Amino acid sequence: MDWFPLPASFVPETLLLHVTRDDVIRVLGVTWNFVRSSVLAPFLNICVILCLTMSIMLFIERVYMGVVILCVKLFSRKPEKRYKFETIAVDVEKGHSNYPMVLVQIPMYNEREVYKLSIGAACGLSWPSDRVIIQVLDDSTDPIIKDLVELECQKWANKGVNIKYEIRDNRNGYKAGALKQGLRHSYVEECDLVAILDADFQPDSDFLEKTVPYFAHNPEIGLVQARWKFVNANECILTRVQEMSLNYHFRVEQEVGSSTYAFFGFNGTAGVWRLSALNEAGGWNDRTTVEDMDLAIRASLKGWKFVYVGDIKVKNELPSTFKAFRFQQHRWSCGPANLFKKMVMEIIRNERVNLWKKLYVIYSFFFVRKIVAHLSTFFFYCIIIPATVFVPEVVIPKWGLVYIPSIISILNAIETPRSFYLVFNWILFENVMSMHRTKGTFIGLLDAGRVNEWVVTEKLGDALLKSKDPSTQATKESFKKSPMTRFRERIYPLELWVGLYIFICASYDLAFGKYWYFLYLFGQAIAFFITGFGYIGTKIPN
Fold first, then answer.
1. N or C: where does the chain have the smaller number of CB atoms within 10 Å of the terminal CB?
2. How many CA atoms lie within 13 A of 82 on its CB side?
3. What is the pLDDT of residue 12?
4. CA-to-CA distance for 456 and 464, rounded, in angstroms?
5. What is the pLDDT of residues 259-316, one digit of tens each?
6. Are 217 and 240 in contact (CB under 8 A)?
7. 327, 333 in Cβ contact below 8 A?
8. Helices assigned H by DSSP within 106-206
């Protein structure tokens, strides 16, 4: 058969004559329906199943901890009843020699606003003056602040306080490096215990009187952890929602670990360590940004027991600027994931702790609370649920969409009764922050670029009050920047892009959906927008 080439214009002209706009729309519709039913629907169904599985794991964990806390309260299983506790008294013959020698370490870095508070509180502790050493570990890079801190230490030394001002010529290891270097001084050899207080922490004068007796009468105890009390919780909505999350952490998570397996993560401050436990565990290690949790895991694997005493409260400051809070949450999510990757096999191979404790540490402490909690929150509530409005074939069961998250939220909120009315705000903001926590978790698991990024959490002290005074230098400096520059500094593009995605999904659901997801999606989109434009947290002059 002979083939005769068609004229070049034959096919296009024919198509143009017979293909209409409606035909194009019809073809696109058929193609979309095929892709939606054959590709997107199965993929989203798999994602929904994975997210629901993680939600169930998180739900079971929360209910379990709720039951444990209920039993602790019903049976009054307070630490002083589980362990021997007797106040240390002065021996008439021996004097103060029966008091353990305590080293109080205060690591700080350019803490202009709070250094006086922490040093003053540490120097005011009720403990025999010949049985305590206050050690200020100053890594400040600002020479003016270093001079101020040194003068403050000298002031207390002139009052008879045994206080040491220590500096080093680098910041290797950040906080862990400073604490490790501080323990190398010769005068530390005579100490039995070491109390650690961050620069914004202000313990009551009886802090040592309430914590040290646990060590004196229970040789198996390696750590006593106190609870945090937030002095600026009422400052703004950002500090209020942080208070809700941290109250649950201390009143439930820490209490459950202490009551069941005598293990929990050291909070890095407001705690007292037995030096022999710290040394046996290998001392401070700067391989991750959660050196406190790292030390706690290693000490627990050596058989040491931890005690959480919720009745002892140490005043401290919550980060009230969103920038500071973001950096803190990156460190608190990236560090545990990275530590889990580095220690999981060491935990499995350990022979000094029993199987149940290993399962608790690996599954409950690390996997569910440090990884699953972040991934399920972000992917389910910020990605998958919004995406399903375009794919009606995907149906999310009501128990996973409403009942489980509602129960989890209520269990969290009841630990801060005064803020219960803020529970919806807390949910939306936690979903926003889950994006950063998820990113940090992946960076930690993959050992990616920012895995060891350490940014000291900014403390404001009374800086906010000073910033409102128009005569202060800080206020004057803030006006040197142009309005556009100040606007750009408060913009967070990632939050805005996710907020736009959710807003588009909400709008589509409002127009074409049948499950009323838009009621939640619009609220979540607004939360992302508010955060993305920097309208959350305290605003202070730069």
1. N
2. 19
3. 56
4. 18
5. 999 899 999 999 999 999 999 999 999 999 999 999 999 999 999 999 999 999 999 9
6. no
7. no
8. 115-123, 143-158, 174-182
Q: Specify the pLDDT at position 450.
A: 77
Whole-angstrom CA distances from 534 to 322, 459, 493 are 7, 18, 10
Rounded CA gap, 445 and 370, in Å? Answer: 11
Amino acid in position 539: K
Half-sphere exposure of 254 (CA within 13 A, CB side): 27
Q: Whole-angstrom Cα distance, residue 307 to residue 294?
A: 17
* Contact (CB, 8 A) for 214 and 221: yes
CB 84 within 8 A of CB 398: no
**Which of 92, 67, 111, 262 is closest to 200 using CA atoms?**
111
Cα angle value 58/228/194 (rounded, 5°): 110
Neighbours of 483 (CB within 10 A): 8
Among 426, 81, 88, 405, residue whose Cα is nearest residue 259 = 81
State the Cα–Cα distance between residues 78 and 328, nearest whole angstrom: 31
Please identify every residue annotated as catalytic: 139, 292
Beta strands in 169-323 (DSSP E): 193-196, 221-230, 271-274, 305-316
For the chain, what is the mean pLDDT?
89
| 55, pLDDT greater than 70 | yes
Q: Is 370 helix (H, G, I), strand (E, B) or coil?
A: helix
Distance CA(372)–CA(53), nearest Å, equals 10
**Of 214, 219, 304, 212, the residue nearest 262 (C-alpha):** 304
Burial label for 21, CB within 10 Å (0-12, 13-18, 19+), is exposed
214: Cβ contacts below 8 Å, ≥ 6 apart = 79, 83, 85, 221, 224, 307, 309
By the 10 Å C-beta count (0-12 exposed, 13-18 middle, 19+ buried), 57 is classed as middle
Distance CA 439, CA 374 (A): 9
> What is the C-alpha separation between 377 and 8, in angstroms, rounded?
57
Of the CA atoms within 13 Å of residue 501, those in its CB half-sphere come to 14
pLDDT digits (tens, 9 = 90+) for 197-231: 999 999 999 999 999 999 998 999 999 999 999 99
Residue 269: closest CA among 415, 434, 450, 456: 456
All residues at 6 or more sequence positions from 440 whose CB lies less than 8 Å from its CB, including other chains: 329, 330, 331, 332, 333, 334, 337, 374
- The CA distance from 250 to 265, in Å, is 11
First and final C-alpha spacing in the chain: 83
Beta strands in 254-356 (DSSP E): 271-274, 305-316
d(CA 339, CA 324): 23
Could you tell me what percentage of the chain is helix, strand and coil, using 3-state DSSP and rounding each to the nearest 5? 60, 10, 30
CB 532 within 8 A of CB 496: yes
Hey, how many other C-beta atoms are within 10 angstroms of the C-beta on 144? Answer: 10
pTM of the prediction? 0.89
Q: Which long-range contacts (CB under 8 A, 24 or more apart) does 367-373 make?
A: 367/340, 368/57, 368/58, 368/61, 369/61, 369/253, 370/333, 370/336, 370/337, 370/340, 370/441, 371/337, 371/340, 371/441, 371/445, 372/54, 372/57, 372/58, 373/58
Task: For residue 29, name the pLDDT band (cuts at 50, 70, 90).
Answer: confident
